[in-house]
Design a protein that fits this description.
By secondary structure, the protein is of the alpha+beta class. The protein has 45 helices and 34 strands. Strand 30 and strand 31 form a beta hairpin.
Length: 1540
């Protein structure tokens, strides 16, 4: 249930038993009542002509002067008109005037209940116009039975507008000129209305009763509530007996509590109750001049109020009116008032999103959840602001607020007053008003108007009956739409100060919205129907809510345009804090910001930057609190603003809760014993008892005090932005894979607080390794959002690591990620509050600067050397023409002899016909030999079966052990240049392996001979590097090579035809002196549109490089690589503009994969730096055939696992398989397909089956085998999308805290989240404490119930686990290695790999009795009698060796068709396995997972599938199609899976 509370207190305020009188003596010395504040209302009005000897009647007052001292002649400025003055009389002998007007005779008609002054006091025509047209003064008089608090005319004045006069405060100007003549001044009549004040006494209000009587835990009852419920004081009044009861008045007010961090909204209804004559004291009788039985009676004011932390003013108004009517009707009530109060405060749930509370059969109230916006919550009424002030005055009041003037807002409508004041405070966003702010100021606080600082205060207009405002105050009258700027600022502040473009856009928008509001006000709603008006009420509220948002957005856009680009002038703290670090000048470049603005508006920005709210804004922006999401949202608004994009929406409608769910609540049960008739509003404490469990709902408002608040909490805007990015990325294969992988990395950082809590004393190492993991993720361009950086910065602050926080900020900027307000604030607080290391002295900084200078010089020198070598290779003598026609004679070389090196095809032709082999380290050129003599026929020959069993094939990757073997291998090359190199090798030193540095051996007898061959350049370089203490001249580190698996291919005995020397083969160790290696196994098709001259020159230079002397073999290799690059550029330049023609017999060109962006850091095979050759050639038939965009993509960014699924050194083995079955068609779904078909919805658990295209929920199959246990525990859980998993983990952390992931009970309480996290962390190759939680959870479940006994057993079990720790496998990420080192020392149960986790590609249990080929291959020894199956698998493997997949694809499809013919012929029948998976898994099983180039396999399979004849395509189903791009990328960005 939602723990938020609808209302907090119910209060009854009125006269206490001994009230304190409220008059000028009880207020501050600076707040005396003005003279005549208790004057009688105006009852009569007349016209007098003094120049005609007319005399003012007795009791009348003549208005002789205007407010500025001018003559109040109504014909002012006329030449021949007589003087005309206005006079009036005050009194209580008759009903007062309630309205005054001006009527043009003949053009207007008099209202029925109005009268006009036709004659002057002397009996003449009372024409007040100086022309021939007649103009009369009109009036309306109140009825004898009018309420005593009705609005009546209390004052009249005349203003001359042509002389610069304006109406005084609270006066309403009649917008009709009294002087219609050609000559004369513009004279206007003004009057003031106020509540009719009868004989009364004003007291300080007091609390009569309230519920609950005690204080709430997080919210004590404010003592100032009575003053705000009755802002004009509690009154005791004398009324005539014929006066009717006045209507109750609804008012709202706002209080600030908890050091102004939270607002409390009050909703009050003020009314009058009869006061007993016997309770009147003698003093009161004297002051009121009251006599019993003289036609008068007594009344006292009272107020009922509801306090809440939520602005439910409309709902509380209806509810309070309902309670008031229960008392005012004087009827018997079956349900007590107290029961209604208890129901609202204790039983009504918070609306989510709507709650309908039925009060009676005819009345109900509706509560709607407030807007879920990233803006500060308020009771703002933007519609009231715009409707009462208009567009022009809205701009003026905005200027007054932005320059921090003394603003006094007044109105006779207290609810409108509060709504407008709240709107004015809210439209300043992102600024916050820092000065006194009282939306509805009571008389008891009136002294604040004389404070020597800016303020924003709202008062009742009756205030001006008592006081005159100070001259330096700007008054805003909501009743008359008049803004009076203070005298001191009147000539300075003008709307033209505002920036022109933002102000113009704002004004245009407000004028349009103002017209819309006026039109809607004219529409009269039909009378409500209790049975049908519910949905109409919902629609009306949604419509009003949309209007509010539209007006608010207009002001937000103005502020965003005005402050656009301010973030560029923020100054982060990057050094140890000193005095003045937090000054505004040190946090923000004030001068530069002013220079970046338009010079025409420097005055406005100067005034703005000197305000307290701007300085506070800079401070909050630099040290923003975790719970403040508004500044981050404002930053996003400024970024989204384009120069010409003015129609962008910031507050989109979908940001407001739109659910139609409504909770209906019935009224309380009636009880006859509690039925009563109310004569006054009083509460019985005995009936204020709750019937249900009383709850404290305020904890959600004070989230900063919750110890377990999640660190990784995202703002609402960040969640929405992430959803938009996911929707954008889901249709882009590479970006979608990065999005999923980045989300998985984010999950790791979310688990980081739990990891740190378990490693006390190891925080520095864990944080450093987490930083390195973040660096690796950014290098791979993964979609790690800002939460990772913010969480790291927060942890750096918690564990006092400010230097690491600075590195994180630099990493963000280096990757183009600008920190938002939350991240920036956490960073500054971290570096400001953390303890900086003492050793960061100036000498260390100087040494670091020197090191950077030397490093920079070394890089320049290295680049210069490369450029010089390139120039030398270009100018070399080209003595060998590789394009000679004699070189194109086709011939084959023997595999058994290295002496015969015949002339062969040209290099370009060989590059064009080269094919990347699926099996790494081998190539296909028409024939293949193995150790056992198994060979495949040429592709043009007949198909046949292999005669030798596949299990006899011996495969090895072992390099030759002697130099002679290297020479023998190199002699197989068909290139003439390679033959010359071999001749040099045989004529010179036989120790060619040492000369080429294929292996690093320490041979003492050849050391001197080796040193003699080192050139002077090499010696000088060695001397420099040996004496380089800074390490500036060290070569870039190369990742350690991957240890080859047990299954290897013997290349020394079995090497196919190839067009490249073994020197540049990926299976041979590269020389350490090589700057770069030429491309291995890259094949090119020559384009028919490539310019012959360009290719000829490049190949000629290439030939000259090959024919160099072998003494400079390194230079020759570099030159060859560069020339191949030139060929690539020539081909790429041609192919980008001209289509390529490819013969039908050509293969799809493929290049060796390379590491994208820099060197590999994860130990994968793509770590060696290799050159890339463009192979963008022809496309093939079908949507799956063209994979040329993925030729250069590595198989995976992670190392291929080589361990088996059983380990003797682990306490527990966990095997997890992601292969699932579609519940629609029973097809098998594999991991990359599941990930590729996930949706961007973070609430959708489904993936899409690629066979039936139906939605299905994938599952993770988990098998747990403890050590020394034969039984296996097997179960399945839903396989969650990382986006879904993150959302669920965030919700869990919000409930249980960040450290819940460190408890062993997490495994049993949240198994789905736990096992998905284990799977995810294994897939991104990071090691955490989660696997060991499973072991710990199981050990705790088996312990004794005794707590002490259980603790001892757990301690011994953890100690035993520490002895079984094993180092992690070589090649894993740095974090895993570091944690493994730390695990050996103190707390191994949290870090050590005592539990082994294996991630499987396939689940054998899903295949049933019909095993796939790779499982049959595993059982070939036990089922050897199946000779046909064995030969069939041998044929498939041999075809893979030959890089020819069409034949096995046809055979598998044919066999499957035969099998299905025995049943029902249906290609998509349940249990159909993919031919693609059959061949791929069999190849990985037979040849070794690390020996298969899966990218090459995918390309060849795609080519074969696209070239499949139409007759054969009928045998293939959707599951047999080649892998698509999204699946391929999803496989690349995650750690490779293992086969069972």
């Amino acid at each position: 249930m939602d723990e938020r509370r609808v209302a907090d207190y119910f209060v009854v305020v009125g006269l206490s038993e001994e009230p304190d009188i409220l008059d000028d003596t009880s207020l501050s010395d600076s707040a005396h009542f003005k003279s005549g504040y208790d004057q009688d209302p105006i009852t009569d009005i007349g016209i007098v002509f003094p120049s005609l000897n007319e005399v003012v009647p007795q009791g009348y007052e003549v208005i002789e002067r205007t407010p500025s001292g001018l003559s109040a002649d109504l014909n002012h400025g006329s030449l021949r008109s007589i003087e005309c003055y206005l006079c009036f009389r005050r009194g209580r002998d008759k009903p007062p005037l309630v309205d005054i007007g001006v009527m043009y005779e003949g053009k207007e008609f008099l209202m029925k209940d109005a009268g006009k002054v036709e004659e002057s006091v002397g009996g003449r025509v009372a024409n007040v116009n100086n022309s021939a047209a007649l103009t009369f003064i009109t009036y309306r008089r109140g009825s004898p039975t009018m309420p005593c608090n009705a609005l009546v005319v209390t004052d009249i004045c005349v203003v001359i507008a042509s002389k610069g006069e304006s109406p005084p405060h609270a006066f309403c100007c009649i917008n009709k000129n009294l002087n219609k003549g050609i000559v004369g001044s513009d004279v206007f009549l003004c009057y003031k209305k106020s509540m009719n004040r009868s004989r009364l006494i004003t007291y300080n209000p007091s609390v009569i009763s309230r519920y609950p009587m005690g204080n709430l835990e997080h919210f004590p009852f404010p003592d100032s509530v009575p003053l705000f419920c009755l802002p004009m004081g509690a009154t005791l009044e004398v009324w005539p007996e014929e006066a009717t009861q006045p209507k109750p008045i609804f008012s709202t007010f706002v209080l600030t509590v908890s050091d102004a961090k939270h607002k409390v909204y009050g909703s009050a209804v003020t009314f009058y109750e009869k006061f007993a004559d016997d309770e009147l004291s003698d003093e009161q009788t004297t002051k009121l001049n009251y006599e019993k039985g003289k036609g008068f009676n007594l009344h006292a004011s009272k107020s009922i109020c509801v306090l809440s932390h939520w602005p439910f003013a409309d709902t509380f108004r209806q509810w309070l009116y309902f309670l008031y009517n229960m008392v005012a009707k004087g009827e018997e009530q079956e349900i007590s008032i107290e029961r209604y109060i208890v129901q609202l405060l204790d039983e009504v749930p918070f609306p989510a999103p709507r709650t309908l509370l039925q009060l009676s059969s005819a009345e109900r109230v509706i509560m709607t959840q407030p807007e879920d916006l990233p803006l500060p919550r308020s009771a703002a009424g933007f519609k009231d602001l715009l409707f009462n002030l208009g567009a022009d005055n809205c701009l003026l009041i905005l200027l007054l607020a932005l320059t921090e003037q003394k603003i006094l807002i007044h109105s006779l409508r207290p609810d409108t007053l509060t709504a407008v004041a709240e709107a004015l405070s809210s439209l300043l966003f992102p600024f916050k008003w820092q000065c006194p702010y009282i939306p509805l100021c009571p008389l008891g606080l009136v002294e604040v108007l004389h404070a020597p600082l800016p303020f924003m205060i709202g008062v009742d207009s009756r205030f001006f009956d008592l006081y005159d405002p100070p001259p330096d105050v700007s008054c805003v009258d909501l009743d008359t739409n008049i803004i009076t700027v203070s005298e001191t600022q009147r000539h300075i502040l003008n709307v033209r100060l505002l920036p022109k473009k933002p102000a113009k856009i704002l004004k245009t928008t407000l004028e349009r919205l103002y017209e819309s509001l006026c039109q809607s006000k004219k529409i009269v709603d039909p009378p409500p129907d209790p049975e049908l008006d519910l949905e109409i009420e919902f629609q009306r509220r949604r419509r009003e809510q949309a209007q509010e948002l539209e007006i608010q957005e207009a002001f937000l856009k103005f502020m965003a345009l005005t402050l656009k680009g301010y973030r560029n002038f923020l100054l982060p703290i990057t050094r140890a804090p000193t005095v003045g670090t937090t000054d505004p000048q040190a946090l923000f470049q004030l001068t530069d910001f002013l220079k970046s603005r338009d010079k025409n508006y420097h005055k406005f920005f100067t005034l703005l930057m000197h305000t307290q709210m701007f300085i506070r804004f800079i401070e909050e922006r630099s040290f923003v609190a975790d719970g403040d999401q508004g500044l981050a949202f404002f930053d996003e608004c400024t970024e989204r603003l384009a120069q010409d994009d003015e129609d962008i929406r910031f507050l989109e409608p979908d940001m407001v809760h739109k659910s139609e769910r409504t909770v209906f609540l019935l009224p309380p049960e009636p009880t006859k014993e509690n039925s009563q008739i109310y004569t006054e509003f009083t509460l019985n404490p005995l009936l204020l008892k709750t019937t249900g469990k009383k709850r404290d709902h305020l904890s959600s408002l004070y989230q900063n005090s919750i110890p377990g608040s999640p660190m990784a909490r995202r703002t609402k805007h960040e969640i929405k932005s992430a959803q938009k990015l996911a929707q954008k990325y889901v249709n882009q294969p590479a970006l979608w894979a990065r999005c999923l992988s980045g989300t998985c990395h984010t999950l790791y950082f979310m688990a980081l607080p739990s990891l740190l809590s378990l490693n006390v004393g190891r925080e520095r190492a864990v944080l450093q390794q987490a930083y390195e993991l973040l660096v690796r993720a950014t290098q791979q361009k993964l979609a790690c959002d800002e939460v990772c950086y913010r969480l790291m910065m927060q942890l750096c602050g918690e564990y006092s690591k400010p230097l690491l926080a600075v590195k994180l900020l630099l990493l963000m900027k280096r990757n183009g990620l600008q920190p938002n307000a939350l991240t920036y604030g956490l960073y500054n607080r971290c570096v400001l509050e953390a303890e900086w290391p003492a050793q960061s002295s100036s000498s260390l900084l100087l040494w670091n600067k020197l090191r950077y200078v030397v490093l920079g010089a070394a890089r320049f020198r290295r680049a210069a050397k490369r450029r010089q070598a390139k120039r030398q290779s270009v100018t070399m003598d080209s003595t060998l023409n590789l394009l000679d026609p004699g070189d194109r004679v086709a011939s084959r070389s023997s595999l058994d002899s290295h002496e015969a090196v015949p002339v062969t095809d040209g290099v370009f032709d060989k590059i064009c016909t080269r094919v990347v082999s699926i099996v790494k380290g081998s190539a296909s050129n028409g024939s293949e030999q193995t150790d056992s003599g198994v060979s495949s026929r040429d592709t043009e020959g007949d198909e046949g079966d292999f005669q030798e069993p596949i299990e006899d094939i011996h495969i090895t990757f072992t390099p030759p052990e002697s130099p002679a073997e290297y020479v023998r291998v190199l002699s197989r090359s068909e290139s003439a240049g390679d033959a010359l190199i071999l001749d040099k090798l045989q004529q010179s030193n036989k120790k060619c392996s040492r000369l080429l540095q294929f292996e690093e051996e320490d041979d003492g007898e050849n050391q001197d001979e080796e040193n003699d061959k080192i050139s002077i350049t090499k010696i000088s370089r060695m001397l420099i590097t040996e004496n380089d203490p800074l390490g500036a001249f060290d070569d870039p580190p190369t990742p350690p090579p991957i240890t080859p698996p047990p299954e290897t291919i013997n290349l020394a005995q079995s090497n196919p035809l190839t067009d490249e020397p073994i020197l540049f083969r990926s299976s041979v160790h590269r020389s350490a002196t090589f700057e770069g290696s030429p491309p291995a196994q890259n094949k090119l098709h020559r384009s028919e549109t490539v310019p012959a001259a360009t290719v000829a020159s490049s190949l000629a230079s290439l030939g000259s490089s090959i024919k160099m002397s072998f003494g400079s073999l390194k230079s020759a290799a570099n030159t060859m690589a560069k020339k191949l690059d030139e060929i690539k550029e020539a081909i790429s330049t041609s192919t980008t503009s001209t289509p390529i023609k490819v013969h039908s017999t050509d293969r799809l060109a493929a290049g060796d994969v390379i590491e994208p962006e820099g060197e590999s850091t994860d130990g994968s095979e793509g770590g060696d730096r290799q050159r890339k050759i463009s192979a963008e050639f022809g496309s093939y038939r079908g949507s799956y055939a063209n994979l040329r965009d993925f030729e250069d993509m590595p198989e995976s960014l992670f190392p291929i696992p080589t361990e088996s699924t059983s380990s003797n050194d682990s306490e527990m083995d966990i095997v997890i398989a992601s292969c699932s079955t579609c519940h629609n068609c029973s097809s098998l779904l594999y991991d990359e397909e599941i990930m590729a078909n996930w949706t961007s919805d973070d609430s959708n658990l489904n993936s899409i089956c690629q066979v039936c295209r139906g939605s299905t929920v994938p599952f993770l199959s988990i098998r747990i085998k403890p050590k020394d246990a034969d039984a296996l525990e097997t179960f399945s859980i839903p396989y969650l999308n990382p986006l879904v998993l993150r959302k669920e983990l965030e919700n869990l952390f919000a409930r249980e805290g960040d450290l819940s992931l460190s408890e062993a009970k997490f495994v049993e309480e949240h198994p789905i989240i736990y096992w998905n996290l284990v799977w995810v962390f294994e897939r991104i190759n990071v090691q955490t404490h989660l696997p060991n939680l499973c072991l710990k959870s199981r050990s705790e479940s088996k312990t004794s119930v005794n707590v002490d006994k259980r603790d001892e057993i757990s301690a011994s079990a953890l100690a035993e686990d520490s002895g079984n720790m094993q180092p992690v496998e070589e090649g894993t990420d740095p974090l895993t290695q570091e944690l493994a080192i730390l695990a050996v020392k103190d707390e191994p149960q949290h870090l050590a790999a005592s539990v082994k986790v294996y991630c499987m590609w396939d689940d054998p249990r899903l295949h049933g009795d019909k095993l796939p080929l790779y499982l049959l291959y595993q059982q070939r020894d036990t089922a050897f009698e199946q000779n046909n199956s064995t030969r069939f698998m041998q044929g498939v493997i041999s075809s893979v060796h030959c890089t020819e997949l069409m034949d096995p694809m046809k055979k598998l499809a044919s066999e499957r068709q035969k099998t299905q013919e025995q049943k029902e012929r249906n290609i998509s029948m349940p249990g159909n396995r993919s031919i693609y998976r059959e061949i791929l898994f069999l190849s990985c099983q037979a040849l070794g997972r690390t020996h298969i180039n899966i990218n090459a396999f995918d390309r060849e399979y795609s080519v074969a599938f696209s070239r499949m004849p139409d007759g054969n395509l009928k045998m293939f189903g959707p599951q047999d199609c080649p892998i698509n791009a999204k699946s391929l990328y999803c496989r690349q960005y995650f750690k490779p899976l293992m086969l069972p």
